[in-house]
Amino acid sequence: MKLKQYAPLVALCLAASILLTGCGQGAERTDPPEEEGETFSYPDDDKDFSALRTPGSQEAAYEYRLFFLPGMDGTEQPYVGDTMPYYEDGVYYIYYLKDAGDSYNHSVYLATTTDFVRYEEQDGPVLEASRSGGQDSWIGTGSVVKVDGSYLFFYTGHTGAADLEYKEKIMLARSGSLTSFEKVAGWEITPPAELGQKQDFRDPQAYYDPETDTISLTVTASQGNVARILKYTLSADLQTVTYDGIIFTNPVGDFWNLECSDTFRLGDKWYLTYSAQDDTLWYASADEQFGPYSEPARLEGKLFYAAKHVEDGSGSYMVGWGRRSESPSSTQDVAAWAGNLVVQKLVQKEDGALVLAPVDSVMEQFTARRELPLGSSGTVIEAGSLYSYVDAFTCYERFAITGRFTCSGSGSFGLCFDYNGREDKYKMISVCPREGALQLSFNQGSTLIAENAIDIRPEQEYSFTYLQEGSTGVFYIDGQAALTVRLYGVSGKPIKLFAESNTVTFSELRQYTA
Protein backbone atom coordinates (compact mmCIF):
# COMPACT_ATOMS: atom_id res chain seq x y z
CA MET A 1 0.00 0.00 0.00
CA LYS A 2 1.41 3.40 -0.93
CA LEU A 3 0.93 6.14 1.62
CA LYS A 4 -0.42 9.61 1.01
CA GLN A 5 2.09 11.91 -0.68
CA TYR A 6 2.94 15.15 1.04
CA ALA A 7 2.59 18.25 -1.16
CA PRO A 8 4.71 20.06 -1.98
CA LEU A 9 7.34 17.57 -0.87
CA VAL A 10 6.88 14.98 -3.58
CA ALA A 11 6.10 16.24 -7.09
CA LEU A 12 3.37 14.50 -9.03
CA CYS A 13 5.75 13.62 -11.84
CA LEU A 14 9.04 14.63 -13.39
CA ALA A 15 8.78 16.80 -16.46
CA ALA A 16 11.99 15.21 -17.56
CA SER A 17 13.76 12.46 -15.69
CA ILE A 18 17.44 13.34 -15.74
CA LEU A 19 19.58 10.59 -14.35
CA LEU A 20 23.23 10.78 -13.42
CA THR A 21 24.85 7.48 -14.33
CA GLY A 22 28.09 6.32 -12.77
CA CYS A 23 29.59 5.84 -9.35
CA GLY A 24 31.99 7.71 -7.14
CA GLN A 25 32.14 11.46 -6.79
CA GLY A 26 33.70 12.36 -10.11
CA ALA A 27 30.64 11.63 -12.22
CA GLU A 28 29.13 14.28 -14.48
CA ARG A 29 26.13 16.25 -13.20
CA THR A 30 23.41 18.04 -15.11
CA ASP A 31 21.14 20.79 -13.84
CA PRO A 32 17.50 19.73 -14.20
CA PRO A 33 14.70 22.08 -15.17
CA GLU A 34 12.66 23.21 -12.19
CA GLU A 35 9.27 21.58 -11.74
CA GLU A 36 6.21 23.64 -12.57
CA GLY A 37 5.04 25.40 -9.42
CA GLU A 38 8.28 24.67 -7.53
CA THR A 39 11.36 26.83 -7.29
CA PHE A 40 14.55 26.48 -5.32
CA SER A 41 14.90 28.51 -2.16
CA TYR A 42 18.12 30.01 -0.86
CA PRO A 43 17.39 31.10 2.74
CA ASP A 44 20.03 33.31 4.32
CA ASP A 45 19.44 32.06 7.85
CA ASP A 46 20.99 28.58 7.62
CA LYS A 47 22.91 27.94 10.81
CA ASP A 48 26.67 27.94 10.30
CA PHE A 49 28.23 24.84 11.85
CA SER A 50 31.74 25.41 10.47
CA ALA A 51 33.09 26.66 13.80
CA LEU A 52 31.35 23.91 15.80
CA ARG A 53 33.87 21.15 15.35
CA THR A 54 32.79 18.75 18.09
CA PRO A 55 29.57 16.72 18.26
CA GLY A 56 28.90 18.18 21.71
CA SER A 57 29.16 21.79 20.53
CA GLN A 58 26.80 21.06 17.65
CA GLU A 59 24.30 19.41 19.98
CA ALA A 60 24.36 22.43 22.30
CA ALA A 61 23.62 24.74 19.36
CA TYR A 62 20.46 22.97 18.15
CA GLU A 63 17.06 24.55 18.70
CA TYR A 64 14.74 21.57 18.92
CA ARG A 65 11.14 22.28 17.90
CA LEU A 66 9.71 19.19 16.21
CA PHE A 67 11.60 16.71 18.40
CA PHE A 68 10.88 18.46 21.70
CA LEU A 69 13.43 18.73 24.49
CA PRO A 70 12.77 20.35 27.89
CA GLY A 71 14.36 23.76 28.39
CA MET A 72 17.83 24.06 29.87
CA ASP A 73 18.05 24.06 33.66
CA GLY A 74 21.03 26.30 34.24
CA THR A 75 23.83 24.59 32.39
CA GLU A 76 22.18 21.17 32.45
CA GLN A 77 20.08 19.73 29.62
CA PRO A 78 17.10 17.61 30.82
CA TYR A 79 15.63 14.86 28.65
CA VAL A 80 12.28 13.24 27.89
CA GLY A 81 11.85 9.78 29.42
CA ASP A 82 8.83 7.47 29.20
CA THR A 83 5.81 9.30 27.79
CA MET A 84 2.18 9.06 28.90
CA PRO A 85 0.09 10.87 26.26
CA TYR A 86 -3.52 11.94 26.82
CA TYR A 87 -5.85 13.83 24.44
CA GLU A 88 -8.77 16.10 25.26
CA ASP A 89 -10.52 18.99 23.47
CA GLY A 90 -7.91 19.57 20.79
CA VAL A 91 -4.91 19.38 23.10
CA TYR A 92 -2.37 16.57 23.47
CA TYR A 93 -1.13 16.38 27.05
CA ILE A 94 2.21 14.60 26.94
CA TYR A 95 3.27 13.60 30.44
CA TYR A 96 6.81 12.30 30.68
CA LEU A 97 9.40 11.12 33.17
CA LYS A 98 11.88 13.98 33.13
CA ASP A 99 15.51 12.98 33.41
CA ALA A 100 18.02 15.42 34.94
CA GLY A 101 17.63 19.13 35.44
CA ASP A 102 15.21 20.08 38.23
CA SER A 103 13.47 16.70 38.10
CA TYR A 104 13.76 14.69 41.32
CA ASN A 105 14.09 10.95 40.62
CA HIS A 106 12.21 10.94 37.33
CA SER A 107 9.25 13.04 38.44
CA VAL A 108 6.41 13.54 35.94
CA TYR A 109 6.41 16.74 33.86
CA LEU A 110 4.05 17.97 31.14
CA ALA A 111 4.33 19.38 27.63
CA THR A 112 1.22 20.26 25.61
CA THR A 113 0.70 20.65 21.88
CA THR A 114 -2.16 20.98 19.43
CA ASP A 115 -0.23 19.95 16.33
CA PHE A 116 3.01 18.11 17.27
CA VAL A 117 4.86 21.14 15.90
CA ARG A 118 4.68 23.72 18.69
CA TYR A 119 5.07 22.59 22.30
CA GLU A 120 4.41 24.43 25.53
CA GLU A 121 6.39 23.20 28.50
CA GLN A 122 4.87 23.46 31.96
CA ASP A 123 7.20 24.61 34.71
CA GLY A 124 7.41 22.34 37.71
CA PRO A 125 6.36 18.71 38.10
CA VAL A 126 2.84 17.43 37.63
CA LEU A 127 3.62 14.59 40.01
CA GLU A 128 6.80 14.55 42.05
CA ALA A 129 8.72 11.62 43.49
CA SER A 130 8.71 11.58 47.29
CA ARG A 131 11.65 13.54 48.67
CA SER A 132 11.19 11.91 52.06
CA GLY A 133 11.67 8.38 50.75
CA GLY A 134 9.06 5.65 50.86
CA GLN A 135 7.45 3.56 48.15
CA ASP A 136 7.50 6.25 45.46
CA SER A 137 10.92 7.71 46.11
CA TRP A 138 11.20 7.22 42.34
CA ILE A 139 8.28 7.71 39.94
CA GLY A 140 7.73 5.14 37.21
CA THR A 141 5.56 5.18 34.10
CA GLY A 142 1.77 5.31 34.32
CA SER A 143 -1.30 6.71 32.56
CA VAL A 144 -4.16 9.18 32.93
CA VAL A 145 -7.84 8.28 32.61
CA LYS A 146 -10.99 10.36 33.12
CA VAL A 147 -13.74 8.88 35.29
CA ASP A 148 -16.90 10.81 36.24
CA GLY A 149 -15.30 14.21 35.71
CA SER A 150 -12.17 13.37 37.70
CA TYR A 151 -8.72 12.59 36.32
CA LEU A 152 -6.95 9.56 37.75
CA PHE A 153 -3.22 9.15 37.33
CA PHE A 154 -2.11 5.55 37.93
CA TYR A 155 1.66 5.39 38.26
CA THR A 156 4.54 3.18 39.41
CA GLY A 157 5.97 3.71 42.87
CA HIS A 158 9.57 2.51 42.77
CA THR A 159 11.86 2.29 45.78
CA GLY A 160 15.39 1.24 46.48
CA ALA A 161 14.83 1.02 50.23
CA ALA A 162 15.98 -2.32 51.61
CA ASP A 163 13.41 -2.28 54.42
CA LEU A 164 10.38 -2.16 52.09
CA GLU A 165 8.88 -5.46 50.95
CA TYR A 166 8.02 -4.51 47.36
CA LYS A 167 10.38 -2.73 45.01
CA GLU A 168 7.42 -1.60 42.86
CA LYS A 169 3.72 -1.01 43.48
CA ILE A 170 0.94 0.59 41.47
CA MET A 171 -0.07 3.89 43.09
CA LEU A 172 -2.62 6.62 42.39
CA ALA A 173 -2.99 10.39 42.15
CA ARG A 174 -6.16 12.36 41.45
CA SER A 175 -7.08 15.78 40.06
CA GLY A 176 -9.88 17.96 38.78
CA SER A 177 -7.58 19.26 36.06
CA LEU A 178 -4.85 17.90 33.80
CA THR A 179 -2.01 20.09 35.03
CA SER A 180 -1.38 18.88 38.61
CA PHE A 181 -2.21 15.80 40.67
CA GLU A 182 -2.46 14.96 44.35
CA LYS A 183 -1.37 11.52 45.56
CA VAL A 184 -4.04 9.32 47.12
CA ALA A 185 -2.53 8.11 50.38
CA GLY A 186 -2.94 4.42 51.14
CA TRP A 187 -4.23 3.36 47.71
CA GLU A 188 -2.00 0.77 46.04
CA ILE A 189 -1.86 -2.52 44.16
CA THR A 190 0.85 -5.03 45.06
CA PRO A 191 2.10 -7.89 42.87
CA PRO A 192 -0.05 -11.05 43.10
CA ALA A 193 1.58 -13.86 45.07
CA GLU A 194 1.57 -16.23 42.08
CA LEU A 195 4.15 -14.04 40.30
CA GLY A 196 6.71 -15.30 42.76
CA GLN A 197 8.65 -12.02 42.73
CA LYS A 198 8.36 -8.54 44.21
CA GLN A 199 10.73 -6.63 41.96
CA ASP A 200 9.20 -5.90 38.54
CA PHE A 201 5.59 -4.74 38.59
CA ARG A 202 4.99 -1.49 36.75
CA ASP A 203 3.70 0.72 33.93
CA PRO A 204 -0.07 0.70 34.61
CA GLN A 205 -2.20 1.61 31.59
CA ALA A 206 -5.84 2.46 32.42
CA TYR A 207 -9.01 2.30 30.29
CA TYR A 208 -12.47 3.38 31.50
CA ASP A 209 -15.63 1.63 30.26
CA PRO A 210 -18.72 3.78 30.97
CA GLU A 211 -21.08 0.90 30.11
CA THR A 212 -19.79 -1.24 32.98
CA ASP A 213 -18.52 1.70 35.06
CA THR A 214 -15.20 -0.10 35.51
CA ILE A 215 -11.55 0.61 34.85
CA SER A 216 -9.36 -1.98 33.14
CA LEU A 217 -5.72 -1.75 34.15
CA THR A 218 -2.83 -3.53 32.46
CA VAL A 219 0.50 -3.96 34.25
CA THR A 220 3.82 -5.35 33.03
CA ALA A 221 5.56 -7.91 35.23
CA SER A 222 7.75 -10.98 35.19
CA GLN A 223 6.93 -14.52 36.28
CA GLY A 224 9.54 -17.24 36.29
CA ASN A 225 11.88 -14.86 34.45
CA VAL A 226 9.37 -14.68 31.58
CA ALA A 227 7.87 -11.32 30.60
CA ARG A 228 4.09 -11.04 31.11
CA ILE A 229 1.33 -8.45 30.87
CA LEU A 230 -1.34 -8.66 33.57
CA LYS A 231 -4.87 -7.30 33.78
CA TYR A 232 -6.97 -5.92 36.64
CA THR A 233 -10.54 -4.71 36.84
CA LEU A 234 -11.28 -1.80 39.18
CA SER A 235 -14.63 -0.39 40.21
CA ALA A 236 -15.02 3.28 39.28
CA ASP A 237 -15.00 4.24 42.95
CA LEU A 238 -11.66 2.38 43.31
CA GLN A 239 -12.96 0.34 46.25
CA THR A 240 -12.80 -3.02 44.46
CA VAL A 241 -9.68 -4.33 42.71
CA THR A 242 -9.89 -7.72 40.96
CA TYR A 243 -6.89 -9.51 39.48
CA ASP A 244 -7.92 -11.07 36.15
CA GLY A 245 -4.66 -12.86 35.37
CA ILE A 246 -2.13 -12.86 32.55
CA ILE A 247 -3.30 -11.61 29.15
CA PHE A 248 0.01 -11.83 27.26
CA THR A 249 3.21 -13.84 27.64
CA ASN A 250 6.27 -12.97 25.62
CA PRO A 251 6.65 -15.68 22.94
CA VAL A 252 9.91 -14.55 21.32
CA GLY A 253 13.40 -13.60 22.43
CA ASP A 254 14.73 -13.52 25.95
CA PHE A 255 13.05 -10.36 27.23
CA TRP A 256 12.53 -10.09 30.97
CA ASN A 257 10.03 -7.24 30.79
CA LEU A 258 7.60 -5.69 28.29
CA GLU A 259 7.62 -2.03 29.22
CA CYS A 260 4.99 0.66 28.63
CA SER A 261 2.31 -1.61 27.14
CA ASP A 262 -0.82 -0.11 25.58
CA THR A 263 -3.89 -1.36 23.75
CA PHE A 264 -6.02 0.47 21.18
CA ARG A 265 -8.37 -0.17 18.30
CA LEU A 266 -7.87 0.60 14.61
CA GLY A 267 -10.66 -0.43 12.28
CA ASP A 268 -11.99 -3.80 13.41
CA LYS A 269 -8.79 -4.92 15.15
CA TRP A 270 -7.29 -4.39 18.57
CA TYR A 271 -3.57 -3.95 19.02
CA LEU A 272 -1.17 -4.39 21.91
CA THR A 273 2.13 -2.47 21.82
CA TYR A 274 5.10 -2.67 24.16
CA SER A 275 8.83 -1.98 24.31
CA ALA A 276 10.69 -5.17 25.09
CA GLN A 277 13.26 -4.33 27.78
CA ASP A 278 16.39 -2.97 26.07
CA ASP A 279 15.00 -4.01 22.68
CA THR A 280 12.56 -2.59 20.15
CA LEU A 281 8.91 -1.52 19.89
CA TRP A 282 6.63 -4.50 19.21
CA TYR A 283 2.95 -5.02 18.47
CA ALA A 284 0.44 -7.89 18.39
CA SER A 285 -3.18 -7.91 17.18
CA ALA A 286 -6.42 -9.40 18.45
CA ASP A 287 -10.17 -9.44 17.85
CA GLU A 288 -10.81 -8.35 21.44
CA GLN A 289 -9.03 -5.69 23.46
CA PHE A 290 -7.36 -8.04 25.91
CA GLY A 291 -6.61 -10.92 23.57
CA PRO A 292 -5.89 -13.62 22.69
CA TYR A 293 -3.18 -11.96 20.61
CA SER A 294 -1.31 -12.89 17.45
CA GLU A 295 2.41 -13.51 17.27
CA PRO A 296 4.12 -10.14 17.76
CA ALA A 297 6.07 -8.21 15.14
CA ARG A 298 8.56 -5.39 15.44
CA LEU A 299 7.16 -1.94 14.70
CA GLU A 300 10.34 0.17 15.06
CA GLY A 301 13.99 -0.01 16.07
CA LYS A 302 15.49 0.24 19.55
CA LEU A 303 16.05 4.01 19.41
CA PHE A 304 12.29 4.72 19.47
CA TYR A 305 11.49 3.58 22.98
CA ALA A 306 8.60 3.45 25.46
CA ALA A 307 6.11 4.68 22.86
CA LYS A 308 2.42 4.77 23.71
CA HIS A 309 -0.67 5.39 21.62
CA VAL A 310 -2.82 8.52 21.51
CA GLU A 311 -5.65 9.41 19.16
CA ASP A 312 -7.76 12.50 18.44
CA GLY A 313 -10.73 11.09 16.55
CA SER A 314 -9.13 11.46 13.12
CA GLY A 315 -5.56 10.24 13.60
CA SER A 316 -3.65 7.74 15.71
CA TYR A 317 -0.08 8.29 16.85
CA MET A 318 2.73 6.64 18.78
CA VAL A 319 4.49 8.99 21.20
CA GLY A 320 7.88 7.95 22.57
CA TRP A 321 11.44 9.12 23.01
CA GLY A 322 14.44 9.00 20.71
CA ARG A 323 17.39 7.42 22.46
CA ARG A 324 20.65 9.38 22.88
CA SER A 325 24.26 8.66 23.80
CA GLU A 326 25.82 9.58 27.11
CA SER A 327 28.63 11.10 25.03
CA PRO A 328 27.86 12.66 21.63
CA SER A 329 31.40 11.71 20.61
CA SER A 330 30.75 7.99 20.99
CA THR A 331 30.95 6.00 17.75
CA GLN A 332 30.21 2.68 19.45
CA ASP A 333 26.66 2.88 20.80
CA VAL A 334 23.50 4.90 21.39
CA ALA A 335 22.36 3.48 24.69
CA ALA A 336 21.49 6.22 27.19
CA TRP A 337 18.09 6.44 28.83
CA ALA A 338 15.79 9.32 27.73
CA GLY A 339 16.23 11.73 24.83
CA ASN A 340 14.06 13.79 22.48
CA LEU A 341 10.30 13.45 22.15
CA VAL A 342 9.42 11.62 18.91
CA VAL A 343 5.88 11.31 17.52
CA GLN A 344 4.93 9.11 14.55
CA LYS A 345 1.64 8.45 12.79
CA LEU A 346 0.14 4.96 12.91
CA VAL A 347 -1.07 3.47 9.63
CA GLN A 348 -3.06 0.25 9.37
CA LYS A 349 -2.41 -1.66 6.16
CA GLU A 350 -5.06 -3.69 4.34
CA ASP A 351 -3.86 -6.94 5.89
CA GLY A 352 -4.04 -5.46 9.42
CA ALA A 353 -0.29 -4.93 9.75
CA LEU A 354 0.87 -1.65 11.31
CA VAL A 355 3.48 0.74 9.96
CA LEU A 356 4.62 4.16 11.09
CA ALA A 357 4.59 7.28 8.92
CA PRO A 358 5.55 10.94 9.31
CA VAL A 359 3.03 13.19 11.04
CA ASP A 360 1.24 15.30 8.41
CA SER A 361 1.54 18.57 10.34
CA VAL A 362 5.27 18.02 10.76
CA MET A 363 5.82 17.35 7.05
CA GLU A 364 3.87 20.50 6.20
CA GLN A 365 6.57 22.59 7.87
CA PHE A 366 9.11 21.74 5.16
CA THR A 367 8.30 24.11 2.32
CA ALA A 368 11.64 25.57 1.17
CA ARG A 369 12.99 23.36 -1.61
CA ARG A 370 16.78 23.35 -1.63
CA GLU A 371 19.10 22.96 -4.57
CA LEU A 372 20.96 19.66 -4.34
CA PRO A 373 24.77 19.33 -4.33
CA LEU A 374 24.05 16.33 -6.56
CA GLY A 375 23.10 18.79 -9.30
CA SER A 376 20.25 16.57 -10.41
CA SER A 377 17.06 15.02 -9.09
CA GLY A 378 18.31 11.50 -9.74
CA THR A 379 21.32 9.26 -10.06
CA VAL A 380 22.28 5.67 -10.78
CA ILE A 381 25.01 4.13 -8.64
CA GLU A 382 26.65 1.00 -10.04
CA ALA A 383 28.73 -0.42 -7.18
CA GLY A 384 30.92 -3.46 -6.80
CA SER A 385 32.07 -4.93 -3.51
CA LEU A 386 33.45 -1.57 -2.34
CA TYR A 387 31.25 1.33 -1.29
CA SER A 388 30.53 3.95 -3.95
CA TYR A 389 29.43 7.43 -2.87
CA VAL A 390 27.82 10.49 -4.44
CA ASP A 391 27.34 13.83 -2.63
CA ALA A 392 23.59 14.38 -2.79
CA PHE A 393 22.26 16.59 0.02
CA THR A 394 23.34 18.99 2.77
CA CYS A 395 22.88 18.29 6.48
CA TYR A 396 21.02 21.38 7.68
CA GLU A 397 19.80 21.84 11.24
CA ARG A 398 16.26 20.85 10.25
CA PHE A 399 15.34 19.22 6.93
CA ALA A 400 13.32 16.61 5.04
CA ILE A 401 14.39 14.43 2.12
CA THR A 402 12.06 12.51 -0.18
CA GLY A 403 12.68 10.31 -3.17
CA ARG A 404 12.38 6.93 -4.82
CA PHE A 405 14.72 4.01 -5.36
CA THR A 406 14.93 0.79 -7.35
CA CYS A 407 17.70 -1.78 -6.93
CA SER A 408 18.78 -4.75 -8.99
CA GLY A 409 20.94 -6.62 -6.47
CA SER A 410 21.08 -7.53 -2.80
CA GLY A 411 23.84 -5.26 -1.50
CA SER A 412 23.19 -2.34 0.84
CA PHE A 413 22.52 1.28 -0.13
CA GLY A 414 21.13 4.46 1.40
CA LEU A 415 22.28 7.67 3.08
CA CYS A 416 25.80 8.27 4.37
CA PHE A 417 26.74 11.02 6.86
CA ASP A 418 30.22 12.46 7.20
CA TYR A 419 31.32 12.48 10.84
CA ASN A 420 34.92 13.69 10.78
CA GLY A 421 36.09 13.51 7.17
CA ARG A 422 37.25 9.90 7.42
CA GLU A 423 35.45 7.22 5.40
CA ASP A 424 35.99 4.64 8.14
CA LYS A 425 33.92 6.84 10.50
CA TYR A 426 30.95 7.40 8.17
CA LYS A 427 27.51 6.97 9.76
CA MET A 428 25.05 5.15 7.51
CA ILE A 429 21.32 4.58 7.16
CA SER A 430 21.30 1.41 5.07
CA VAL A 431 18.63 -0.41 3.13
CA CYS A 432 19.86 -4.01 3.20
CA PRO A 433 17.86 -6.34 0.91
CA ARG A 434 20.11 -9.33 1.63
CA GLU A 435 19.59 -9.06 5.40
CA GLY A 436 15.96 -7.96 5.11
CA ALA A 437 16.77 -4.98 7.33
CA LEU A 438 16.77 -1.21 7.51
CA GLN A 439 19.81 -0.35 9.62
CA LEU A 440 21.64 2.48 11.37
CA SER A 441 25.35 1.74 11.63
CA PHE A 442 28.50 3.65 12.51
CA ASN A 443 32.12 3.29 11.38
CA GLN A 444 31.27 2.73 7.71
CA GLY A 445 28.79 -0.01 8.48
CA SER A 446 30.89 -2.04 10.92
CA THR A 447 29.05 -1.03 14.12
CA LEU A 448 25.34 -1.84 14.07
CA ILE A 449 23.29 0.52 16.22
CA ALA A 450 19.62 -0.20 15.39
CA GLU A 451 17.52 -1.99 12.77
CA ASN A 452 14.02 -2.85 11.64
CA ALA A 453 12.73 -5.56 9.30
CA ILE A 454 11.99 -4.81 5.62
CA ASP A 455 11.24 -6.75 2.45
CA ILE A 456 12.86 -5.09 -0.57
CA ARG A 457 12.53 -6.82 -3.95
CA PRO A 458 14.75 -6.24 -6.99
CA GLU A 459 13.37 -4.09 -9.82
CA GLN A 460 10.51 -2.79 -7.68
CA GLU A 461 10.23 0.92 -6.96
CA TYR A 462 9.89 2.23 -3.41
CA SER A 463 9.47 5.74 -2.05
CA PHE A 464 11.23 7.01 1.04
CA THR A 465 11.06 9.95 3.43
CA TYR A 466 13.71 11.14 5.85
CA LEU A 467 13.33 13.77 8.58
CA GLN A 468 16.11 15.16 10.72
CA GLU A 469 16.28 17.88 13.35
CA GLY A 470 19.52 18.35 15.23
CA SER A 471 20.91 14.87 15.82
CA THR A 472 17.51 13.13 15.80
CA GLY A 473 16.04 11.63 12.64
CA VAL A 474 13.54 9.09 11.34
CA PHE A 475 13.91 7.22 8.03
CA TYR A 476 10.77 5.81 6.39
CA ILE A 477 10.41 3.37 3.55
CA ASP A 478 6.90 4.51 2.88
CA GLY A 479 4.28 1.91 3.67
CA GLN A 480 6.82 -0.59 4.96
CA ALA A 481 9.08 0.46 7.83
CA ALA A 482 10.41 3.27 10.01
CA LEU A 483 13.72 3.63 11.84
CA THR A 484 14.58 6.30 14.39
CA VAL A 485 18.25 7.32 14.29
CA ARG A 486 20.70 9.42 16.31
CA LEU A 487 23.45 11.15 14.33
CA TYR A 488 25.82 13.35 16.28
CA GLY A 489 28.46 15.54 14.65
CA VAL A 490 27.15 15.53 11.07
CA SER A 491 25.56 18.99 10.69
CA GLY A 492 26.86 21.37 8.04
CA LYS A 493 28.42 18.52 6.06
CA PRO A 494 27.43 16.66 2.88
CA ILE A 495 25.02 13.74 2.94
CA LYS A 496 25.98 11.12 0.39
CA LEU A 497 24.04 8.45 -1.43
CA PHE A 498 25.91 5.16 -1.37
CA ALA A 499 25.71 1.58 -2.58
CA GLU A 500 27.75 -1.63 -2.50
CA SER A 501 27.30 -4.85 -4.48
CA ASN A 502 24.26 -3.37 -6.16
CA THR A 503 22.98 -1.10 -8.90
CA VAL A 504 20.55 1.43 -7.48
CA THR A 505 18.48 4.03 -9.29
CA PHE A 506 17.50 7.03 -7.17
CA SER A 507 14.88 9.37 -8.63
CA GLU A 508 12.59 12.29 -7.73
CA LEU A 509 15.04 13.39 -5.05
CA ARG A 510 14.03 16.49 -3.09
CA GLN A 511 15.36 18.23 0.00
CA TYR A 512 13.38 20.80 1.98
CA THR A 513 14.03 22.94 5.01
CA ALA A 514 11.42 24.38 7.32
Query: Low-confidence segments, ≥5 residues, pLDDT <50?
Result: 1-34
Oligomeric form of this entry? single chain
Give the DSSP E fraction (strand runs of 2 or more residues): over 45%
Terminal CA distance: 28 Å
Q: Structural class, from helix and strand content?
A: mainly beta
Mean pLDDT: 93
Shape call: globular
What fraction, in percent, of the residue positions are helical? under 10%
Biggest sheet overview: 8 strands, mixed
Radius of gyration: 24 Å
User: Total strand count, please?
Assistant: 34
Number of helices, counting only DSSP H or I runs of 4 residues or more? 2
Descriptors for this entry?
about 0% helix, six-stranded antiparallel sheet, 34 strands, single chain, about 525 residues, mainly beta, disordered N terminus
List the helices and strands and how they pair.
Elements (H helix, E strand, L loop, with lengths): L19 E2 L33 H7 L17 E10 L2 E9 L8 E6 L5 E3 L16 E10 L2 E9 L9 E8 L6 E8 L11 E9 L4 E10 L2 E10 L5 E9 L8 E9 L2 E8 L4 E6 L10 E2 L5 E8 L4 E9 L11 E13 L5 E4 L2 H4 L4 E2 L9 E5 L4 E7 L3 E10 L5 E5 L9 E6 L4 E6 L4 E7 L8 E8 L2 E6 L3 E6 L7 E6 L2 E12 L1
